[in-house]
Specification:
The chain has an eleven-stranded mixed β-sheet with strand order 9-8-7-10-6-11-12-13-14-15-16, sandwiched between helices. It has a six-stranded mixed β-sheet with strand order 17-18-22-19-20-21, with helices on both faces. Strands 1-5-4-3-2 form a five-stranded mixed β-sheet. Helices cover about 35% and strands about 20% of the residues. It starts with a helix and ends in an 8-residue tail after the last helix. Helix 3 runs parallel beside helix 5 and helix 14 crosses helix 15. The chain has about 500 residues and is α/β, with parallel strands linked by helices.
């Protein structure tokens, strides 16, 4: 494709140099530049691509998009724009022949719950016969094929390439998870959404600027949705959106507030949940293999999205009981034991408090938690999370979690200080995370719940001088296998506290 075709959407741009040359690829990472490439220089938190323009040209880039700095001695065409990240989104869409226009795009936006709703909705659509892609934070999916997320901070170029793969594979729908990180990166800039589903926006002083951006963007998405807005009216921001949406059809869902699609009669168990689902004047008895009220709310949001996409409820209902677990989101680990073990990604105050509250509602006996806090990340949350554990858990094991360049014992000491502000007993420090997981499971008795928090689906441990493989789920499975082998059969049976 010629450069002039690729940049035709850049209405505000200064172009210096020829535009008739063929472009073989686009890159925002100078290491990936090949001869014939268009290089987009962007300033990010840790790297400024403008510093690598000369290197990109040396690697064979024939055109440069930049906000400043320019090219030297006119060795490549210079396209100067006010915002490189927005420009990347537009040229990537053109290069991949506007794949989003060939898909029904469904955006699931929020600071909490968006991952669960997006993954569940994709499953319901796919299992109902609609070939559906997913752009997620844990993995991407093209129909039944699954791809791991390679970069935490992926860019719009990666999204457009993925959308093109979906179109080529025959997908008709794409479900997109929209969070603060994706908005900071302009990951979905220029994409028109058929449907927007709002989940929850919860205030967290550590991320208030990002959440304000999310809230404002969500308002714009709701106003601009082509077909429908599916809004969680339990969320105060969502309720406000429901009163001021644009021309699109509005569908409300919730538990606590009156909604068009609502759950009531909730029963919570350590193995799943049951509830009555009201859709208009109809009431259906439903069960899901996920734990807690927020899991129910996410399932209701996904059902509302599927119904709005045109899937009849009788095709949805049978799929609810077999919903797959979401990696690292209260993910159960079991070898048939008489207590429950969960791995969860909760690594900030709000998520940690929420998951502990969820388990408190279903735990018949003691709640045991093993967790730590990351190094070089939001030091203020450590004290607070220590207090939360002291208040909510019966026994706490404080351990390591990606200490990076900080001394792990210093991080643990800050957590311990918060814990001791509430209580002086029923806790221990175990620096080695694998040993902490083993100890938490060794302490568990029938009816207990064990929570291993912080990593979720992530499979590494980051230290000062190394990044090592580490999967909480694998270590929990190993500890369970040892305990089950040493425990009499009568004590390991009956792990499922209720059938859903």
């Amino acid at each position: 494709m010629q450069l002039k075709q690729i940049i035709q959407k850049l209405h505000v741009a200064t172009v210096v140099g020829p535009t008739g040359q063929e472009i073989n690829g686009i890159s925002y990472d100078v290491r990936a530049v090949q001869p014939g490439s268009l290089y987009v220089a962007m300033a990010r938190e840790t790297v400024d691509g403008h510093d690598s323009i000369d290197e990109a040209i040396g690697r064979g880039a024939v055109a440069i998009i930049c906000e400043r700095n320019g090219t030297i001695k006119q060795r490549a065409t210079k396209i100067e724009v006010p915002h490189s990240a927005e420009a990347l989104a537009l040229v990537a869409s053109s290069f991949y022949e506007e794949p989003a226009r060939k898909l029904k795009m469904i955006g699931v936006a929020g600071s909490f719950g968006q991952c669960s709703v997006a993954y569940t909705l994709r499953h319901l659509l796919q299992q109902s016969g609609i070939k559906t892609g997913l752009v997620g934070s844990i993995h991407h999916q093209v129909g039944e094929r699954e791809f791991p997320v390679q970069r935490i901070s992926s860019e719009s170029l990666d999204v457009q390439k993925l959308l093109r793969q979906m179109v080529n594979a025959g997908c008709g729908v794409c479900v997109v998870e929209i969070n603060e990180q994706s908005l900071r990166n302009n990951r979905f800039f220029g994409i028109d959404f058929e449907m927007i589903i709002s989940t929850r926006i919860e205030r967290n002083f550590s991320f208030s600027a990002d959440q304000e951006l999310l809230e404002e963007t969500l308002r714009q998405l709701v106003r601009n949705a082509r077909h429908a807005c599916v809004i969680n009216v339990d969320d105060p921001v969502g309720y406000q959106l429901s009163q001021a949406h644009g021309a699109a059809r509005l569908i409300s869902y919730g538990i606590e507030e009156r909604a068009q699609i609502a759950a009531s009669g909730i029963q919570l168990f350590a193995s799943g949940s049951r509830f009555e689902l009201q859709i208009g004047n109809e009431i259906h008895s439903c069960g899901i293999p996920h734990v807690g009220r927020r899991s129910i709310l996410s399932a209701v949001g996904a059902v509302a999205g599927a119904l709005t996409a045109g899937v009849p409820f009788d095709r949805i209902e049978s799929k609810l009981a077999d919903l797959p677990g979401i990696p690292g989101h209260l993910e159960a680990v079991s070898c048939g034991q008489s207590f429950s073990v969960f791995v969860d990604h909760a690594n900030n105050e709000e998520e940690f408090a929420s998951v502990l509250q969820t388990l408190r509602e279903v735990c018949r006996r003691r709640l045991i938690v093993a967790f730590g806090c990351e190094g070089e990340r939001h030091e203020e949350k450590r004290y607070t999370m220590g207090r939360i554990a002291a208040n909510a858990a019966d026994y706490t094991i404080i351990t390591a979690d990606n200490s990076r360049n900080e001394p792990v014992r210093d991080i643990i000491a800050e957590i311990e200080q918060g814990y001791l502000a509430i209580r002086q007993n029923h806790y221990e420090i175990c620096v080695d995370r694998a040993a902490a997981i083993t100890q938490a499971i060794a302490l568990a008795r029938p009816g207990d719940c064990v929570l291993i928090a912080g990593k979720g689906h992530n499979t590494y441990q980051e230290f000062e001088d190394a990044i090592s493989p580490f999967d909480d789920r694998e270590y929990a499975s190993e500890a369970l296998a040892i305990k089950c082998a040493l425990t009499p059969q009568s004590e390991t049976s009956g792990a499922a506290l209720a059938n859903v």
